[in-house]
Amino acid sequence: MKIILNVIWLILSGFWLFLGYLLAGVLLCVTIIGIPFGIAAFRIGVYALWPFGYTTVERRDAGAGSCVGNVLWLVLAGWWLALAHITTGIALCLTVIGIPFGIANFKLIPVSLLPLGREIVPTDQPFAAR
Asked: What angle is formed at CA 21 by the lines to CA 93 and CA 89, rounded to 5 degrees?
């Protein structure tokens, strides 16, 4: 079932989300200061490309730098990304067929708000990364 949902997601919206996060990652990697944020955008993009069967977990070894980076990300980009995922998630949940895709959009909210210090793992082993 995960494969079918991922293929439909990929065709309808996952590819476009991936391209958007990829473009943002490339633009962020132009400066040395933006490289960690660019890598986070690439990570979110891959997660947005294939969200079913994966989840995010916090990395326990993330330090103070990821905390400061998350505050910057939240103020500059995370808030708007989360609002966009909430809006599209609600719109997708208006139809019965779109409910799983709306839920997938809601799964993207935590990682789009605070991406640094998070890792994407398969849902059958969420504690393996810890």
From this structure: 10
Residue 61 pLDDT? 82
pLDDT digits (tens, 9 = 90+) for 7-54: 998 988 889 989 999 999 999 999 999 999 999 999 999 999 989 988
Question: Collapsing DSSP states into helix, strand and coil, what is residue 84?
Answer: helix
- Whole-number CA gyration radius for the chain: 15
Only one residue has tokens 């990570």, namely 43
The span from the CA of 12 to the CA of 115, in Å, is 24
Q: Which residues contact 66 (CB under 8 A, 6 or more apart)?
A: 59, 116, 117
The rounded distance, in Å, linking the Cα atoms of 96 and 49 is 22
Q: Is 54 helix (H, G, I), strand (E, B) or coil?
A: strand
Helix or strand (DSSP H, E) at 33 = none
- Pull the structure tokens for residue 72: 């910057």
Whole-prediction pTM: 0.82
Asked if 79 and 109 count as a contact pair (C-beta separation under 8 A), the reply is no
Instruction: Return the closest-CA partner of residue 110 out of 60, 51, 64.
Output: 51
